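agent> fetching stored inputs for the manganese (II) ion docking request
agent> found them:
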Amino acid sequence: MSDLVTRLRRHNWRITPQRRVIAETLEGSHVHFTADEILERACERMPELSRATVYNTLNEMVALGEVLELAFDGRSKRYDPNADHAHHHLICEGCGLMKDVHAVGDPIEWLPGDERHGFAVTRAAITYRGRCPDCQDAA
Amino acid sequence: MSDLVTRLRRHNWRITPQRRVIAETLEGSHVHFTADEILERACERMPELSRATVYNTLNEMVALGEVLELAFDGRSKRYDPNADHAHHHLICEGCGLMKDVHAVGDPIEWLPGDERHGFAVTRAAITYRGRCPDCQDAA
DNA sequence: TCTTTGTTTAGACATAGTCTAAGCTAGGAT
DNA sequence: ATCCTAGCTTAGACTATGTCTAAACAAAGA
Ligand SMILES: [Mn+2]
Ligand SMILES: [Mn+2]
Ligand SMILES: [Zn+2]
Ligand SMILES: [Zn+2]
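agent> prediction call returned; pasting tokens
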């Protein structure tokens, strides 16, 4: 797994101290933080970091294609550093736990031509929902 | 006459004038309005209708399982009366046009057991993205 | 050094949605 | 019919999330 800072550097994008802290906060597997969670964690290392810079930086990383912006619940967006590794998501309806998952095959192939309404279809994302092991026990 | 109103009545749910206007505003295929769009359209027939009632009513219809709440873009939620016909969505990245689509097979079957992280997986929704005929021409 | 360009910041602003408290309405009991 | 009660509707306050602005700041290049 190539780290996010390394991938960002390839875009001639200035890695300022603020941007580095934000990018490093986003490292890892199954990481899907909200902007506020990122701000809170990044502020542990750089307390003067501003909310505007977190939003600016996240939006730029999304525009560069190195971070995915996820909007599943209509509350706050979540940011996923795993943009170089196509995957889908599995979400617990009890506690919100979110996991990266990989389905077999390409969902675009499961959409027949007569269901495409003339669109040029380029991407497909699957959202799986269910209950995680902890929430099954609690049920 | 009104399919959604008929379905709602089965839940012993009082169909007030306000609720009827909101439900009838939601009738149709490929209907995915925001709460504000529903308020605006419903107010054409009942000008004194309040924003709070629109939100209350939509949330109750979602809780009854007769309307789907969609959150694709992190902006406003959209409401889909087509809850009795399982389907997925195809969204134009140019103009936001959204169509109901039907894929072949069940996406849950395409998620291997070793990708389920111990979850009991109950639902799967596919979001297809591309460009609609108009936006392909405009490109 | 000076200049230019891009970055960061606080706070104002915008939007979407929820909550509260009061008034209203419908239906059941008397 | 009148009263009572539970539920419904309403305006507006409030919260949460995110964007915008203008000024200060920082870095690279001449
Ligand atoms: Mn992910
Ligand atoms: Mn739909
Ligand atoms: Zn859970
Ligand atoms: Zn389009």
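agent> quick read of the result: Chain A touches chain B at residues 69, 71-74, 76-77, 88, 90, 92-93, 99, 101-105, 107-108, 110-112, 115-133, 136 (CB under 8 Å).
agent> awaiting further instructions
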